[in-house]
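worker-03 picked up job from queue 'complexes'. Input manifest follows; three sequence lines, order preserved.
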Amino acid sequence: MKMNRIACAALTAILACPLLAGQAVADPAQDLAAFRDLYQNRFPDIPLAAHKDGAYALDEAKREQWLEMEDFPPYEIAVDDGAELYGETFPGGGSYGECLGEGAPAVKQMYPRFDVSAGQVVTLQMALNDCRVKGGLEPLAYDGEEIAALAAYVAMESRGELIDFAIPDEPGALAAYESGKAFYYTRRGQLNFACSSCHLQNAGMMLRAERLSAAIGHATHWPVYRGKWERVGSLHRRFQECNVQVRAEALDEQSETYRNLEYFLTYMNNGMELNGPASRK
Amino acid sequence: MAKPVKIRAKLKGEVASVKSLMPHPMETGARKDPEGNLIAAHYIETVTCEHNGEVVVVADWGPSVSKNPYFAFEILSAKAGDNVKVSWTDNLGETSSGETTLK
Amino acid sequence: MITIVNGAVRTLRVAALLLAGSFAGLANGAQPQAADVTAVIEQARASLAQARQLGHGWTVTPDYIEVAEAALADKRLDDALAAAQRAELTARQAVVQAETEASAWQGRVPSS
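worker-03 finished. Artifact:
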């Protein structure tokens, strides 16, 4: 639309300020540095590492209530179930441990990763299902309780590990990263919010009765026992909820879009400590 | 097969702080499944807590208690080696329990 | 089909909004016929498909379509047209959002 282009050009000229002008193709490492700076400046008294606790790093009263729950957390039941599932041998031979490889089950920090041969982002849940299929089992439904329990167990075992990966210098991986990044900053839904609207621009502010958490802690603590769900659910389920809350249609769990989004978000959480599974309201 | 009650207890002086987590669906009987059929009521009716075999707490629950209930209580005048047990019975006659020894 | 992710049944809310809001009616002021309503619903569906193709489907659009079709079946043509028009408008707005956001998102990326 001609009007839009003129308007955009004018705006860019007026607002040609380094803080506001985005870059067409940026270096992920640069994006990460800018991301960290944003939160460092927004919350100068809070060390970046503390944001792994989400809103509980920003609100003392909520933190107290959360710590009380952590004394005997509701996700323990799912972790026990997950441990039981994890211990089963596959009918075709092998086990989750053998399939997931070195360090298993403490492997959450290896996901998501870009599988060059498959040409797509592979998440923990996808890897677990891949193991099942290779071992002669049916894959689990991504929105079901069993995959959530397995993920909860792996997350528990992986606590303390650091998110630490680079985007491989490979067109597929960079495209997946860019796709996730574009999704994150794009306004969507009738309410016209981007993920960044709440979790970058307004992190720390109240949204109705909730404190908006910083995106820099978002990839560390999944899966989550959400009180609202009365069960453990995945990051993708939360993506679905966020989308519907701004009146944008949700996508399926483990869809390509959500996997790319998880890829971008997890990269932005590089250096953060894994502390899942977690309990949340 | 009902899952066992998860139980933890901390002894501070003579006071034992007991916490329990009871895996249970706690269905009210008012919820509907995706096809529109009512899901049958299935909830814990009675919780009994024992200290060395002596009943110290009896709780009457109903459908208003949420799924996988958490229940905590304190026992005054307890000592190391004491046995603490939490058990429940539900409206379908199922039961379960969990116990621990105070340290 | 209403997607109940939050457990919220949005159709009821949408219907309430219609009753509370103003009613646009037909451009020429004439009484709407079933054919008028159907035409708008078809337009809404087409725009919704386009919005979805661009990854920007809004949850309210299919809800409005459902309300429109229910009202149409009930012969409440004023309500049906109002809902159909809301469906078409929201779908069209979603497409505009997709087109604008294709470049606008970059302005939100932080840079040091």
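worker-03 released lock.
The beta strands of chain A are 113-115, 120-122, 206-207, 210-211, 224-226, 231-233, 278-280.
Chain A touches chain C through 41 residues (CB under 8 Å).
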